[in-house]
Amino acid sequence: MFCCLKGCINGFTLTPSVPVRIKENPIQLDSLHMGHEVVLVKSGQRACGSGCTLGNAPLVQNKAYFEVKLQQGGVWAVGLATRDTDLNRVHGGFDKESWCLNSDGTVRHDNIELYHLRPASRDSPTELLVSTESPNHVDDKPESDNPDSTISVMPVEGDVIGIAYDHVEMNFFLNGKNMEIPVRNIKGTVYPALYVDDGAILDIILDNFRYPPPSGYEKIMVEQSLL
């Protein structure tokens, strides 16, 4: 835990400076909805330790987008979950209340493998083949007649994963490019979900995105602003 915390706070210095009032984004990772061994720093923007943490605001607008930077590798997962998910799990999508891309290359919901990013041939060492064989999620399979839709790249340390959700499907983006692994049939009120373990450090990015959101998508807004 100390090693993780050291990595979490790496880069922080206490130096004299002129106070500047900056309007902080009220949306952040939620210390009231996280696993017992999760550690949040950077004003609720960074997660490490072990377990799951949710965002403090649900995705209620028509098209919402946020990003997660893989600051340090380990065991991790990113996606969406309701507040009924098991926050002490270190893998996402292993219950009925979460839908996640995992560091082992699987996209899961209710412990059903929707997609698996498989290692490609030696000729294309950076590419991973996307496959899905679940009979309950045949609609999630990429179109076979579009060769570009069957290839994705597994995120590595330093990459930025974008998550776009429009209440019809969730799409993952890797460094601004659609991974073509849509997840559908998401139910309930869902929140950003970050899972960490084994030294993983994840930073949630809720505005000032590293990559432009898909057309029509915006940062997560608090519910009152939509009334």
Automatic annotation (TrEMBL):
<dbReference type="InterPro" id="IPR013320">
    <property type="entry name" value="ConA-like_dom_sf"/>
</dbReference>
<protein>
    <submittedName>
        <fullName>SPRY domain-containing protein 7</fullName>
    </submittedName>
</protein>
<feature type="domain" description="SPRY">
    <location>
        <begin position="61"/>
        <end position="210"/>
    </location>
</feature>
<dbReference type="InterPro" id="IPR043136">
    <property type="entry name" value="B30.2/SPRY_sf"/>
</dbReference>
<feature type="region of interest" description="Disordered">
    <location>
        <begin position="125"/>
        <end position="152"/>
    </location>
</feature>
<dbReference type="InterPro" id="IPR035766">
    <property type="entry name" value="SPRYD7"/>
</dbReference>
<dbReference type="InterPro" id="IPR003877">
    <property type="entry name" value="SPRY_dom"/>
</dbReference>
<dbReference type="Pfam" id="PF00622">
    <property type="entry name" value="SPRY"/>
</dbReference>
